[in-house]
Structure prediction request, 173 residues.
Amino acid sequence: MKVQHRVAIWCGSLLFVSGSMASFLAANAQQGKNKKYICSETSPGSMCTAATTCGSASSPCVVNIKRSGSSSASATSTPAIPNAKGNAPFCVKVGTTVTWQSSSKNTGFVLDFGPSSPFEMPTTPGTIIGGADRPVSVVAKKPGCYKYSVGACVSGSIYGMCGSSTAEIVVTE
Prediction:
């Protein structure tokens, strides 16, 4: 019975998060007009240093997704790099496994890379859907600079309990 309850909660959250995807993509399009992006610069790879690079070919890059804020909720993706800030651009090398997860209890997340993703995707191209009890690991395959939308919802949430934002990842050779 406990397993059925968890499955029902997870499926309901997944449907809610997936259904909300269009709304947070639209919100991010409006919000992102004033934000400067690394991917818009001529050489985004120049920002990649030891301090901004996550993981390696032998060690995965773990990125924590969570919903933050109370009145104006947002979502953050923070790589496991010392002193990393939420939604700050970060780098990985081709061949690095990136594990997207949430350390926040009862939180589901959606990452959308649009039509072009740097990862070898096991499911829907460009979209990663996971949660607190369902981390998703993908391998970086295509070098380049990629913008992505990140959304996070708390399970059983009501209107306003989801957050969204945009972030960037640079994949180097």
Remarks:
- Residues 1-34 have pLDDT under 50 and may be disordered.
- The helical segments are 2-31.
- Residues 65 and 77 are 5 Å apart (CA to CA).
